[in-house]
């Protein structure tokens, strides 16, 4: 299916387009992942697991969420001081 036809189908909002998408090759632009390894003491892992279980996500998800939140906070604070 051509892109313009998919756009029309999507914009018409009359039918589901999920079957027209190749979900096996989907990629998020500008979101390339890079693997890193981090060692934590056992009490940190236990705390992460407890919080992840409470929220209903994986340990990796809670780590990523908290790191992104902290980086965004730091970035906002830097802009306030320098801007």
End-to-end Cα distance, whole Å, is: 47 Å
Helix content: 55-70%
Sequence of secondary-structure elements: HHH
Compute the number of helices: 3
The residue ranges in which pLDDT falls below 50 over 5 or more consecutive positions are: none
Proportion of beta-strand residues = under 5%
Q: Tell me about the largest β-sheet.
A: none
Tally the structural domains. Answer: 1
Number of strands: 0
- Provide the gyration radius in Å: 20 Å
What best-fitting shape do the alpha-carbon axes yield?
extended
Present the secondary structure layout.
Blueprint lengths: L2 H10 L29 H14 L3 H24 L1
Task: Tell me about this structure.
The chain is an all-alpha fold. The protein has one domain (3-82). Helices cover 58% and strands 0% of the residues. The protein has helices spanning 3-12, 42-55, 59-82. The model has no long low-confidence stretch (mean pLDDT 88).
